[in-house]
Design goal:
Layout lengths: L10 H4 L15 H18 L5 E3 L4 H10 L15 E4 L5 H13 L4 E6 L2 E6 L6 E4 H4 L1
Parallel strand pairs: 3-5
Antiparallel strand pairs: 1-2, 2-4, 3-4
Helix pairs in contact: 2-4
């Protein structure tokens, strides 16, 4: 898939640029990408700044096997495997966190928020409930 998803997000951002040969997209997650894009547009409007995507969709093998071999901590229940989360360098302020919770509430989905020294994880997923964590857990 190519081109824009919404005004400020495109399909290229959805693919994990670090995944090397794993640059494909599983169409079963198409609706998740559309929904997350719309939610991120609302957050972008709130912050007034671009949201730089570092990681979005991760194929199962890449998330569960390749990334841990490279020294990254990943979850086997990662939202990224469902294309329903991003990692971004956005500043994790209380306002941004509360806005993301509010957006998720309006869309009637559970939020996932991870706060790190490099930025944050923002996602949604109903089967795991609301989740929030910090870098201390990540280490």
């Amino acid at each position: 898939m190519v081109g824009k998803i919404t005004d400020n997000f495109n399909w290229y951002e959805c693919y994990n640029s670090n995944a090397n040969g794993y640059k494909y997209f599983d169409l079963q997650f198409y609706d998740n990408v559309l929904q997350l894009s719309k939610m991120l547009e609302e957050l972008r409007e709130y912050t007034g700044e671009p949201i730089n995507v570092h990681s979005w969709y991760r194929p199962v093998y890449y998330n569960d096997v390749v990334m841990p071999r490279k020294g990254y901590h990943t979850s086997t229940r990662s939202d990224h495997k469902l294309a329903s989360a991003i990692d971004t360098s956005i500043n994790p302020t209380v306002g941004v966190i509360n806005k993301w919770k509010s957006i998720c509430n309006r869309y009637e989905v559970s939020y996932s928020i991870g706060v790190y020294d490099w930025g944050m994880h923002l996602g949604f997923r109903n089967d795991l409930g609301n989740r929030q964590w910090t870098q201390d857990w990540y280490k």
